[in-house]
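To whoever picks this up:

The parser on our side crashed when reading a file containing two proteins. I've narrowed it down to the boundary between the first structure block and the second sequence. Both blocks are reproduced below exactly, byte for byte. First block:
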Amino acid sequence: MILNIENQTKIELDFSPLEEIYVKAEQIKLLPKDYTLDLCLCDSEFICRQNKEFRGLEQKTDILSFELSSNYGSLLICLEYLRDRSGKKGLAQDLHSVFAHGVCHLAGYDHFTDEQKKTMQTKELALLQADE
């Protein structure tokens, strides 16, 4: 498994917990061993442009996920959005949760129905156990 992290912001954080969550995704068989994930940590302006282009929504969001093939995906996470939402003290934990959420999307989980939400939340919690 390969995790490529690109931080396009000036916000500095320890990203090793994200690597632990990613390894846990393979351990609990959410993602295959040969999976490659590109993670881009971006600002509000960038995610707004991407959200408009790919979803037709002219607004910022916390995360966008793109399943590019069965063993390759991409996540965009807006660190500015998370910082504004959770504050500096909660930023790292919010990032871990949003990352786990994105990994679950790439694994094929969604949250349109209550049943789907419960299943996805269970998978997210399993991933975040590596974050303790």
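<<boundary where parser fails>>
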Amino acid sequence: MNIDLKEALEKAVAMSKSPGAVALVGDSERVLFEDAVGWRQSIPQTLPASVDTIYDLASLTKPVATTTAILQLRDAGKLDLEQPVSEIIPIAAFRSFTIRHLLTHTSGLPGYALWYKEIHDLNEMIQRIAAAGVEWKAGTRRRYSDFGFILLGKIVELTAGDALDAYCTKNIFTPLGMHRTSFIPPKAWQKKCAPTEQCPWRKRLIQGEVHDEHASAMGGVAGHAGLFSTVQDLSRFCRAFLEGKVLNEKTLAEVERIGQVASYPWQGLGWQLDPWSCGASGFLPTRRTLGHTGWTGTALWMDHTQNRYAILLSNTCHPSRKNRDNQTLRQIFFHHVAAHYYPEKRNVHTGIDRLAWDYFAPLRGKRIGVLTNHAAVDQMGHSLLDVLRLTPDITIKRLFSPEHGFRGQAEAGEHVATQTKTIPVISLYGKRKQPTAEEVSDLDYLIVDLPDIGARYYTYMATMKACMETCAKTRIPMIILDRPNPVGGAVLEGPIATDYGKDVCCAPIPIRHGMTLGELALYFKKTFFSEHPLSLQVIETDSWYRALHYEACSLPWVAPSPNIPDPQTALVYLGTCLFEGLNLNEGRGTETPFRLIGAPWLDTKRVLDTLQPQETLGFELYERAYTPRAIPGKASHPQYQDEACHGIFITLKDPQKARPLTLAVALIVAMHRFHKKSLKFDPFFDTLAGGEGLRTQIQQGKSALEIQESWTAALAQFDRKRPRLYPTLKQLLEGDESYKA
């Protein structure tokens, strides 16, 4: 996709109704993009924005100035991040939190209060902060706090023996060549400063002086706001930062470590980490991105993976904060930056991550049941139960498990018993398939977090559907914690099932259905429960669009069942699961299940020689001899156990081009042609295929491409009516939400 960043910047300014903006994208070697659009001021006269416009950075002061100063002083041995703040600012109220707590916004201090009309200097502000006290125990919760950084600014002064602005100029700005960066810009700069608001408190247009009211009341220099700069100066800072010239390597690793705040893993030391594309902050789409934003319309993000950075400066509150729309401005511009420089990469956050991001708001004080298993982990690999335990006011009454059990260790089809523990684990695979009314009657919500793999055969969706039936009858609300479809949501394959209602075929959908579990739940509600009062909420993933496969999501893969060890197998499984309905070994009993197909009677060379290039797009196939063996926990009794098999090994080369169902059908068509007497269709084949149609077409001698073509019209009709919670990349960039209609 051709991305023009100048057009993107113009679009961002226009759609956010901002006066103008300046942006710069660079890496460790050069500036990649730099431009200005619109105006730096609209009253009392219009003046154009330019790349040397000086902007009020607002809260970018926190990381660029204050955090850098604190960490430099720590590395020089002049302070310790674990020190109680009271050891430096001798006030008893500051004994309960440390410098680290201030840097990570976990001190328990208030986030914001309107004190600026009542204080006149920094010392008065510190006394007011002390009097307010903390609202919870330090380290137990993260809440963004200007007041914490005001204290950090004072700590810099007391530790360095110099004013905050003087220290930063001597030790940060001047050494890095940031000659247009300053607290309290000199008068000679003021004409180049973008004005902010026509301030109702100060009763004048604010230009060349800090907009933040608290910083203004304290004289213009504060740890949380007050810094002014240009994109060129910030570019120098970013490049030096990425090159390790601002902080040493050890400190830098500490700053950007995800997870140092357990309840909010996206908070680093002074910097925001692993940004969310759906938020108001802007982003670069890698886990190693760190950055920050400012209230006036500023944003800065740096990516250590590619040594790339992006800066966006604006004065969105000019001439009035009523116009301010930072979210639209940043989202449009940074989405285009991401698409241009990271065309097939995202730092996706799942529903469980989003639940934590929102501080578990829907579940606080609630009693819940959870349908889940071992593979439902957050972006750092923590289980759903561990994440839920981060907040003490959620009561987990009971757990429900699908096929393969709560720990995912049972083989396919194996009966799983219910377990009675502190939290009962109730199996929904075996003698019964759904919860009883009694098992949900004392719940406020039933939560579902299951890692589906995008195939109709996979039984987890059937288990969720059975839970939906119980909840519909008992009027218990459900919440789905959504996850990406690991094989993407842009491609549909296979016949629409006509014979359904089974574990491996529970609905009239294609084999490759293109939906997330949340979208499947919405489809089931509309298709099966439209006349029932089922309350259903889907907590969506962040930063996923429909073309993305799992490898592009930067998420840990935990095998959702014993024979799906990786995302590549999940994609191939969409086709090769059909071999479970034939008298062939589908790779069970080997280390590559579903990627190795064989039998003692198979003439692999003849089969491979007859395949057409269109049928194998995205794959490479090889002959391989093998012998299936019993593998406890994965395949205790595989087809042709201990017999020598002639096999075909499937290698995935291009997931976007691969059509695994077409490949599988092509293989079966060739096998039927050359091995009519040996190849046997089990009744289970029709169950997997959703009816007898596919088998009949193969037995009639139709080619794989003819069979594929026969699905086209029905798939197009299904595609038009299926629920969509997520956009295509084009829709994402255009801000087009019509897909949700």
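After patching the parser it read the second block fine. The chain has 22 helices and 21 strands. The mean pLDDT is 95.
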